[in-house]
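Supplementary Methods, section 5.1.

A reviewer requested that the exact input to the structure prediction be made available. We therefore reproduce it here, unchanged from the version used in the analyses.
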Amino acid sequence: MKKHIAVIGRGLIGSAAARHLALAGHQITLIGPAEPVDKANHDGVFASHYDEGRITRALDPTLFWSDATVASIARYADIEMESGMPFFTQSGAMIAGPMESSFIKGVASVRDERNITSDRYSEAVLAEAFPYFSFETGTQAFYEPTMAGHISPRRLVEAQTICAQKTGAVVVDAIALAITEQSSNVLVSTTRGEVEADQVLVAAGGFANMVLPTAVPIQAYARTVTFFELSAKEVERLKPMPSLVLCLKDGRDPYILPPIKYPNGKTYLKIGGDPTDVALNNVDEMKTWFKSGGTQAVADHLTGIVQDFIPDFDFKSRHHEACMTTFTADDLPLISRQSDRLTVAVAGCGRGAKCSDELGRIGAELACISEL
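The structure derived from this sequence is encoded token-by-token as follows.
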């Protein structure tokens, strides 16, 4: 039986869920505000897809995240073709660190169990293959040369939304304020009126508890990402580099994106990886964090990592921005039915962008179930 399903959250998981539900023939209303033009003075909610670079890779120390990403990557080409919106760059991806680390051991285990196509590089091979990097002594790496690299989360959300709309979905540019379950339907109150639906799927990330009748156990954390504007010469030197996750001996685990051209016409190298977790415990704290633009101390910390890792790194300018990740206690997404008419799909746990299409599909499938 086809239903009217309201999806709250126009981000990575929500837009993916809307596409899958629309393809299944349901009547879809996708609710959420557009990206703010002026973040510092924005009074509404935020999202973490306002960017051009996220790593995508099959390798992961956890089977679920690897499987979900493989499933998503397999659909990238179809989404790009249907939407006319390219978002995937196949630059390759690498995870590097000491083999004795639990993270690298986990990656090796999943690689072998799922037979993921990748090359294993010794310290000597790494130095020869990537002369512009300076790896720590004892580092080994797993390198995925194909079907890995980086995506534009901003363009992926746009692509998913276009696909959903082409299949009949309606987008409501508004903030959801409340959900009221009634005897025969669900009422969603928004800043632009009310939406009545048979089912509601909440995919609003760290802001989900703002609208849910009963809060779910998720924790949002502040993240600072740093961007280095590159000269044409430095872009050319670093052009062959893959997306990279580093596991350092001191426990730090930064990630680095290769040179990416942004909408302003400039090309940036991006790094993330906060040294400590700073919890954001309510909506006001989240909004204040996004408006802040991130933390200077973390930007300085990340700059030191880049300069140590890329000898003679030359950049024209540097800036940092605020981002946010949402986690669960078991480091897996929270995708569950909350009632007969309400489903939740949140918590990418720092890995949600690359596998968001599969997370959205799982949430969409669950939302179609008539009864618990």
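Residues 31 and 172 are 5 Å apart (CA to CA). These observations are discussed further in the main text.
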